[in-house]
Amino acid sequence: MPNNEKLKIGVDIGGTNLKFGIVNREGKILAKCSYKFDKTISSTEVVKGLGIEINKFLVTNKIDKKDISGIGIGCPGSIDSTKGICDYSNNLKFNNAPLVDLIEKTTGLKAKAANDANVACLGEARFGSGKNYQNIVFLTLGTGVGGGLVLNGKIYEGKDGKGAELGHSIIELNGRKCTCGRRGCLETYASATALIKDTKEAMKKHPESHLWNYVENDIDKVGAKTAFSVASEGDKTAIEVVNNFIYYLGEGILNFINIFKPDIVLLGGGVSYQGDSLINPLNEYIKKAHYGFGDSPKVSVAVASLGNDAGIIGASCLID
Ligand SMILES: [Zn+2]
Q1: Ligand 1 centre from 114 Cα, in Å?
Q2: Beta strand pairing call for 154-155 and 264-268
Q3: Distance, CA 283 to ligand 1 centroid (Å)?
Q4: Could you read off the pLDDT of 97-150 as tens digits, one per residue?
Q5: How far is the C-alpha of 223 from the C-alpha of 196, rounded, in Å?
Q6: Which of 150, 165, 195, 308 is most exposed, with the fewest beta carbons within 10 Å of its own?
């Protein structure tokens, strides 16, 4: 460790995994830890357990707490970043969880918390694909669809840090029921969860599809990349699943482009690893349809570059 350089800890609370890492001032992860947490125990026990894991990790890696300036936490759901509380999470049982208070008490280190997608967006803006841009729309396509915004060079979180829930904008009136309680949210059409569900439904309707061969006739083996892989081989059913996914995601992105006119739209999360097979058709779709497309500045969609580490690096950016 360079002299006098304070390190930070970034925590990424996911749907099933907890990850944290020691991050330096340049946004580089020096050491990290990942483990599955028990979803049946209370959020208090999960977060206290996290604090204990951090303490152990620092001892194992011979890092003195004096060299850590704080712990940033990214958590899914509605996070009151001023109070450090997870008020509500539709994909985790973390309602009213005092994240910051519990972590500070367990570790003795200063902590801050914010929504996981806002935090990943912050990481991309500082150290990833967004670093040369002032206006960024960021979407994570994973269990749900998370949203983050950088406007005029600053992260925009809205009142109490609870804004930018782009995944819960309605894309289909009276559409699919969302875990948030509304119907037709982008998340219900453009998340990895939705893609997997759509792939399985298409397979049931089309027993002749190569999708079945790809998963060796075991529908439980369907993942977020199954339809994309089989579509690239020319399978009609898989192509339909992918086109439908691009349609909804494309329409959602067009709404955000028309509202914010960002410099760039960045996609993170599991589905973004499809790379060009996702990005190219999306860019085609957007080029044809955005508002004032004749003479408007072009906006493009790109893959977020920090990948799996965006959560840890972004969370560490919460600490000065
Ligand atoms: Zn919703």
Answers
A1: 19
A2: unpaired
A3: 25
A4: 999 999 999 999 999 999 999 999 999 999 999 999 999 999 999 989 999 999
A5: 6
A6: 308
